[in-house]
């Protein structure tokens, strides 16, 4: 998408082949958008470049401890295996590549001294600005996040390359390197940037936003499910993650794309230019459903070799060890105390947008409804609620609600309830109750999160004895402008704030 230092690049190429590196911090699991840099690495090798791939393990720890220190080695091994599997999937010869880990040289005396030298000339403002689009931004940033851009700049010198390649989201780090490396007596490097593929929800594809990405090891049924929910409005080519994936991954790899259609809709059509496909989609000649189905088939062909490789017992064990399920952590033995208190944060709650499919009176309790709610799973959830005295049945039918999905199922008058509809409640008498309203345009299954807690996997099931929901619920409230909040932080979906109609200042239960 952009090149900084093109004149220097052309001057080097007149004398010899280019030495270039691409780095990745070993944090969350790589997703399908990683095929964008992988396909470009294939281009660099075909052009004769010497390519180094850096597994930036130390960077992963410095970025707000996205990778805990005890998991660094495991995460790095996972990344090394999965990146190599991706490259093999698209036919890139690994013997032409050099693989390096950050800690192989970043803990040396020379490198450490250069970190100190750099910190003596870099301002706090410039360090924070450089990492704004790459390092996780929090209310009270850690010093480690300010060090991150400097380390990435020094990597260019210590890897002895002419150029660094990365996403356009790293542009500020690249200009930071161009400004500060010469102050240490080191050469300014060339920087090449690939575009960022929008996620399935329309924003940047991110490891920390589950609905925005397709993991490299997702099962075929998960790929189908995620693509089915992906933003792909008829005729809309803006922020369309499905189209962008075709443009930046499938076309560069295959030089064509086949839209699969039934004969009654015109049969299959092969496109040899992306612009023609985009034009047909904009004019609604190509239907979103056909586009998604075609991407699903093409994507699974890329993912099949990776899934097969990671089906081995050794790599399954590595995956589980590098990304342990927090809800399956080994409990402390009886008679011993945990060294650290349990981390009770909103991201442990699996809260989703649901659509009420049907609602009936409970067969054994006139004061309860039994609702069938679509939350983006193959089967709707059965939910028992006490809304019968507050909301007429016909007003709930087809309504979007906010559902807590990972409570332990429990029977209520003989009917098992598989979730809880979150509602605003008035503080005074007579009591009033209103279901929370997701923003307009939301779909069943979309994640609801608390502002600042977008990352993190929810517990598989909230253990009743732990009272995680109850502890968090104590700080749930409705703001003066009717927005659902936890400790003054808003409940959000990707489309905006969760609210209620009128019960400002109320509680949430």
Automatic annotation (TrEMBL):
It comes from the Eukaryota. Residues 318-345 are annotated as: Disordered. Residues 330-340 have a biased composition (Basic and acidic residues). It is found in: Cytoplasm; Nucleus. GO terms for cellular component: cytoplasm; nucleus. GO terms for biological process: response to stress; tyrosyl-tRNA aminoacylation. Its main location: cytoplasm. It holds the Pfam family tRNA-synt_1b. One of its GO terms (molecular function) is tRNA binding. InterPro entries: aa-tRNA-synth_Ic (IPR002305), NA-bd_OB-fold (IPR012340), Rossmann-like_a/b/a_fold (IPR014729), tRNA-bd_dom (IPR002547), Tyr-tRNA-ligase (IPR002307), Tyrosine-tRNA_ligase_regulator (IPR051270). Its EC number is 6.1.1.1. Keywords: Aminoacyl-tRNA synthetase, ATP-binding, Cytoplasm, Ligase, Nucleotide-binding, Nucleus, Protein biosynthesis, RNA-binding, tRNA-binding. It catalyses: tRNA(Tyr) + L-tyrosine + ATP = L-tyrosyl-tRNA(Tyr) + AMP + diphosphate + H(+). Residues 345-449 form the TRNA-binding domain. Belongs to the class-I aminoacyl-tRNA synthetase family. This is Tyrosine--tRNA ligase. The gene is Yars.
């Amino acid at each position: 998408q952009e090149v900084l230092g093109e004149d220097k690049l052309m001057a080097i190429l007149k004398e010899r082949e280019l030495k270039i590196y691409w780095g990745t911090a070993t944090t969350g699991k790589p997703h399908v958008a990683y095929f964008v840099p992988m396909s470009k690495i294939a281009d660099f090798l075909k052009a004769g470049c010497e390519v180094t791939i850096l597994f930036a393990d130390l960077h992963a720890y410095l970025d707000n401890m996205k990778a805990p220190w005890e998991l660094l080695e495991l995460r790095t091994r996972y990344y090394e295996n999965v990146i190599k599997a991706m490259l093999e999937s698209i036919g890139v010869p690994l013997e032409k590549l050099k693989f390096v880990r950050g800690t192989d040289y970043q803990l040396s005396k020379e490198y450490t001294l250069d970190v100190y030298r750099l910190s003596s000339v870099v301002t706090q403002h410039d360090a924070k600005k450089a990492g704004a689009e790459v390092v996780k931004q929090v209310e009270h940033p850690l010093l480690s996040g300010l060090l991150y851009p400097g380390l990435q700049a020094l990597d260019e010198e210590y890897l002895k390359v002419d150029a660094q390649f990365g996403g356009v989201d790293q542009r500020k780090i690249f200009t930071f390197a161009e400004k500060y490396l010469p102050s240490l007596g080191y050469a300014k490097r060339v920087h090449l940037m690939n575009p960022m593929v929008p996620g399935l929800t329309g924003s940047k594809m991110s490891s920390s936003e589950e609905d925005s990405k397709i993991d490299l090891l997702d099962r075929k049924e998960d790929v189908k499910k995620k693509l089915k929910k992906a933003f792909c409005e008829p005729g809309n080519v803006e922020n369309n993650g499905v189209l962008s994936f075709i443009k930046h991954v499938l076309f560069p790899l295959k030089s064509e794309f086949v839209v699969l259609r039934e004969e009654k809709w015109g049969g299959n059509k092969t496109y040899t230019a992306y612009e023609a496909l985009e034009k047909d989609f904009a004019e609604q000649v190509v239907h979103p459903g056909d586009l998604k189905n075609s991407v699903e088939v093409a994507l699974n062909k890329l993912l099949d070799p990776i899934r097969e490789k990671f089906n081995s017992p050794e790599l399954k064990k590595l995956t589980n060890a590098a990304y342990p399920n927090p809800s399956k952590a080994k409990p402390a033995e009886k008679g011993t105390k945990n060294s650290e208190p349990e981390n009770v944060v909103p991201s442990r709650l699996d809260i989703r947008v649901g659509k009420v499919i049907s609602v009936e009176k409970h067969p054994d309790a006139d004061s309860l409804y039994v609702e069938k709610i679509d939350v983006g799973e193959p089967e709707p959830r059965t939910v028992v609620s006490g809304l019968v005295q507050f909301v007429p049945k016909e007003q709930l039918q087809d309504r979007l609600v906010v559902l807590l999905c990972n409570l332990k199922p429990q029977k209520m008058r003989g009917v098992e309830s598989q979730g809880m509809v979150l509602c605003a409640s008035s503080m005074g008498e007579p009591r009033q109750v209103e279901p929370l309203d997701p923003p307009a345009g939301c779909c069943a299954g979309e994640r609801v999160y608390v502002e600042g807690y977008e990352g993190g996997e929810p517990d598989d099931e909230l253990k009743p004895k732990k009272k995680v929901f109850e502890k968090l619920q104590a700080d749930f409230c409705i703001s003066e402008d009717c927005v659902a909040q936890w400790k003054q932080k808003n409940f959000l979906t990707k489309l905006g704030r969760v609210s209620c109609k009128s019960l400002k200042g109320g509680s949430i239960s």
